[in-house]
């Protein structure tokens, strides 16, 4: 009697979480799809044919600037406002050549490369000194005192003391 | 292979366009934002932080009635236009409060475009007269400042009249002036 008729469980009950744990993934997917179908069928939609959007190669631009290649609006003449005159040269050459780099600072006495080289050299020197052995430091000191500084002429330094084998 | 096509027409009423540089008049200060009249259908807003080197502590000294040269950051028909006085890299490039004195007047938009053309004869001829400073806003407003009031007014009159003068008439007028 017991196993004859399997009690029919309602759909809602089957949808509950504790019932779904036992199900395998396929049945789960099937259930989900059925759910979605029911929901989407309830939605209203227009039964129109799909209109394809025409590909437009036209870009609409509302400003006049790119059309006529206009100059910058602030101007000064005959040195009335020197900053504006400098700006004029900058802005109008930027327009023409489309350069992004603008150098606003005054011309430096030392060029950028020279500056970088100097900095790098001194930096290498400073860090290098830190790790030099004492003997090399002494050598360096001698070199510094010798103001000529040309690396070819090495200052006369004491020959490194070698181990003198005691003569028998 | 595309080209640029545009319709050139005579217009006096300005419509704010993104990227355009215009001269605005400060009409109100509302907390952190200034309201500018740019000659459009709506007033433009300008934040006090949109100036070079402006911070919350260091506010720009803008009063009602000041003239500002700036560009539109936002300008479409659905929103209130917004202006800024710095460019995308944070530099002012000449924008900001336009200084004291000088004279502001209005011309048609077509004339502004003519004056801003790369080889504008009017500007070249005027620049030979005497030293002066000029700011042209795409909204039809021009600001001029020269050493004396008389010189300023002469330049203003020539610019206004340029609309309707032919090239010869203009040259004649300028010749008379430089003869003075």
Automatic annotation (TrEMBL), chain A:
Residue ranges of the region described as Disordered: 135-168
Top-rank lineage group of the source organism: Eukaryota
A GO BP annotation: maturation of 5.8S rRNA
Bias (Basic residues): 155-168
Name assigned to this protein: M-phase phosphoprotein 6
Biological source species: Dryobates pubescens
Automatic annotation (TrEMBL), chain B:
Location (main, coarse): cytoplasm
Gene3D superfamilies: K Homology domain, type 1 (3.30.1370.10), Nucleic acid-binding proteins (2.40.50.140)
GO molecular-function term, one example from the UniProt record: RNA binding
Keyword NAD assigned: no
Any Gene Ontology CC annotation: nucleolus
Entry-linked Pfam families: KH_6, RRP40_S1
Descriptive protein name: Exosome complex component RRP40
